[in-house]
Design goal:
286 residues; alpha/beta; 6 helices; 5 strands
Length: 286
């Protein structure tokens, strides 16, 4: 019964693994729901902010704001990559890193110098491994990002863009569509492309002036774009982890069923052999 004991040990090991993955699936589901609520809450504000800027924007005002400056060519660009601090979420981080690598290669192919800003241990670990220099490395942003986190990431980039030392800023993040669809996406946040108005233009009373209002709203618009990228990436991470742990749990259950059938067949074969030996012994004594 050495084989039977080995099978029982493997069944217990797989069962313990299934308990762990099932627990992690439930935790990820709970966290994903909270993260999804943050995504849902962030999107209406972003749309309203974009509508206000679209209503205020005119070509003659654009020349007065550095954040609206459209460089003739991109000589120096910054790429902000958002990844997670933890693994066990399938190909989530690998897809984000692949998206960032493709963007960097494209920008360098166009003759631009690229500086890399990375959030999350997984992205930092990869680019350290391949020897890619990083200007910023952040691991302090949790899966519950705040508006202050977005400001700390992008305020320095806005200052560099305003000073003319950067021509473009890109954010590579996840787009949360559903629990099973979190594709990587690239968004250029600087220079600001004025949003397109999708409805009738409201009759605004502007005080003190459109210029003064845009001075305050444009930085907020850029910070909000980074904040949305943070919350959507956090929600995408939990969705990817939930999917990965569910698949692991299902695979463990299937493996347990296979091992249990194998054990039962081995046990039945052992019993049959013992009966045959008893019958054969009794026959020999007659």
């Amino acid at each position: 019964m050495a084989k039977g004991r080995e099978l029982k040990r493997r069944i217990r090991t797989v069962e313990n693994t299934r308990k762990i993955t099932r627990t992690m699936e439930l935790v990820a589901t709970s966290r994903m729901k909270r993260a999804q609520d943050r995504v849902t809450a962030a999107r209406p504000y972003a749309r309203a902010l974009g509508d206000v800027i679209a209503g205020l924007y005119t070509p003659d005002l654009a020349d007065r704001f550095p954040l609206l400056r459209q460089p003739a060519a991109t000589h120096r660009a910054a790429v902000l990559l958002l990844t997670s601090n933890r693994g066990l979420c399938g190909g989530f981080n690998a897809n984000l890193i692949r998206e960032a690598r493709g963007l960097i290669a494209r920008l360098r192919g166009e003759g631009a110098d690229v500086e890399l800003h990375v959030v999350g241990r997984k992205g930092i670990g990869y680019f350290r491994y391949v020897g890619q220099p990083m200007k910023v490395q952040r691991t302090d942003i949790t899966d519950r990002p705040r508006a202050e986190d977005a400001a700390s990431l992008v305020d320095g980039l806005m200052a560099d863009f305003t000073a003319g030392s950067l021509d473009a800023v890109y954010v590579v993040s996840a787009r949360f569509r559903s629990a099973i669809s979190t594709p990587p996406t690239t968004e250029r946040v600087l220079p600001v492309d004025p949003p397109k108005r999708t409805g009738p233009l409201p009759d605004y009373l502007l005080y003190p002036s459109a210029e003064a209002i845009l001075t305050e709203l444009l930085p907020s618009y850029v910070r909000n774009a980074v904040y949305r990228a943070l919350v959507e990436t956090a929600a995408g991470e939990q969705g990817a982890r939930r999917t990965a742990m569910k698949n692991a749990t299902d695979n463990a259950s299937e493996m347990m069923n296979t091992l249990t059938r194998t054990y039962n067949r081995a046990r039945q074969a052992g019993i049959t052999q013992e009966i045959a030996e008893i019958v054969g012994g009794a026959a020999a004594l007659e």
